[in-house]
Amino acid sequence: MSSTRSKFIVVTNDDRNVFALRENVSQYPALITSINSYFPSTRNKTIVIQTRDLAICAGRFVDIPPNLWSHIKDDIDNIRVQVIEARATYYWNRIVGFAREVDALVLGRDMNKPRSHAVAEDLAGKSCPEK
Fold it and tell me: What is the pLDDT of residues 1-49, one digit of tens each?
């Protein structure tokens, strides 16, 4: 593999991938403007930029804070755009799912037991706190 970086960065959101000219997204505000034009659903939303291109990422997607973009942009070829609300909702749904599992363990299959420990029931009426 060549040590010369491509003049492009691949920007991914959900299942869509778009090339961005690296020089056009060298500054963080320009990156955000480009992302919003490529993916209109990200407009007026809080987003996070992630990569897993660096060896230190160990295959995990790692958030790139805005203040580090200028230091990282020349070392990566791929970024992923995540809408924060979507991530928060995903984790909230996982919490509710775990609560249901706890309820099943505590209450068992006996529906006549007192429901004072029904965690999922309490959470079910609430929405994700991040929304």
Answer: 456 789 999 999 999 999 999 999 999 999 999 999 999 999 988 899 9
Cα(84)–Cα(12) distance, integer angstroms: 15
**Predicted structure pTM score:** 0.64
Task: Evaluate whether 77 touches 4 at the Cβ level (below 8 Å).
Answer: no
Task: Convert 39-48 to b/e letters by CB count within 10 Å (16 or more is b).
Answer: beebeeeebe
In 3-state terms, what secondary structure has residue 92?
helix
Domain 8-84 is of which CATH architecture?
Roll (3.10)
57-95 pLDDT per residue, tens: 999 999 999 999 999 999 999 999 998 876 667 777 778
- What are the Cα distances from residue 128, in Å, to 13, 40, 63, 86, 122? 22, 24, 21, 10, 13
Q: Which of 15, 11, 83, 81 is nearest to 45 (CA)?
A: 83
